[in-house]
Amino acid sequence: MSDFFKNRRIVVTGGAGFLGGYVTRGLQKRGCKNILVPKIEDYDFVNINDIVRMYESMKPDIVIHLAAVVGGIGANREHPGEFFYKNLMMGVQLIEQGRLRNIKKFVAIGTICAYPKFTPVPFKEENLWDGYPEETNAPYGLAKKMLLVQSQAYRTEYGFNSIFLLPVNLYGPGDNFNPASSHVIPALIKKCVDAIERKADYIECWGTGKVSREFLYVTDAAEGILLATEHYNGAEPVNIGAGFEITIKELVEKIMALTGFKSEIRWDSSKPDGQPRRRLDVSKAKKYFGFEAKTSFDEGLKATIDWYIANKNSL
């Protein structure tokens, strides 16, 4: 193990969140002595004064920017303006203030929602600008995509080392299980487990079930981000994923089998499916910083279900 992180001051925005917790634990395992997590109660990164205060008090060498306003299709449809504005302002201002202070590196976390709606599968990084994102999450996706534009522009003009990573949909223990804002895996796990407890004879699912998604276990995602932080210093965006896809129908059936829910699925086709297919080309992550996902999907799903069952009464 290298000493890359040992004496550096690392700020992890969103470090108290789902992915952030795994990233901070990964930093601890790598011997990082100065992990700085600005709490949402103390810093509003939409506010420039709070960003300046964070930089002046924490004095980071590296910023890993995980903080985001996120949610599933429903939340994106209800709050497109909020998701665009807050995600854009947080990222743009954090990068600018980091540049002004000559920090060593900025790690910007993008989103698969930045890809065009009809991207050829598997999604390659060079396809990122070939069309408009899927409409239900385009404002969020485009806000994040601007951090790539800014990173590349700042590298060209100022020599500022900002990298841009594109993780696929994450899942794992500690995920957000709030039905108003959760993504598809925790939402489906909660539906199945709750339906078993209520002895319900069906669950209702959005869309048709025909679209596909790719999912990355959260510990793998954290490892990919930390490998890139240490080893990657390029201008190109890089996908971080598991390199597989599964239809939503297959996903529901798998979660039903793992939770033991044996009743009916009712599809509400009046609700949107979202992007037709999602699967990333993950070859550049392996080439540039040696990342490959390690956790099998069944193993990761089981761990996530077990965590929810053990913790649901306190959520």
Topology diagram in text:
Layout lengths: L8 E5 L4 H12 L4 E3 L11 H11 L3 E4 L7 H6 L1 H21 L4 E5 L28 H21 L3 E6 L1 E3 L12 H15 L3 E5 L5 E2 L1 E3 H14 L6 E3 L5 E2 H12 L4 E5 L14 H7 L7 H15 L4
Helix pairs in contact: 1-7, 2-4, 4-5, 6-8, 6-10, 8-10
Task: Give a verbal description of the structure.
The chain has a domain at 9-171 and 215-243 and 277-294: 3-Layer(aba) Sandwich (Rossmann fold), CATH 3.40.50.720. The protein contains ten helices and twelve strands. The protein has helices at 18-29, 48-58, 73-78, 80-100, 138-158, 184-198, 218-231, 248-259, 283-289, 297-311, and strands at residues 9-13, 34-36, 62-65, 105-109, 162-167, 169-171, 202-206, 212-213, 215-217, 238-240, 246-247, 264-268. It has a six-stranded parallel sheet with strand order 2-1-3-4-5-10, sandwiched between helices. Strands 6-9 form a two-stranded parallel ribbon. A two-stranded parallel sheet has the order 7-12. Strand 4 (105-109), helix 5 (138-158) and strand 5 form a beta-alpha-beta unit.
What is the class of the domain at 9-171 and 215-243 and 277-294 in the CATH system? Alpha Beta
Kindly report how far apart the N and C termini lie: 36 Å
- The portion of residues assigned to helices is 40-55%
CATH topology of the domain at 9-171 and 215-243 and 277-294: Rossmann fold
Dominant shape? globular
User: Largest sheet at a glance?
Assistant: 6 strands, parallel
What's the average pLDDT? 96
Q: How much of the sequence is in beta strands?
A: 5-15%
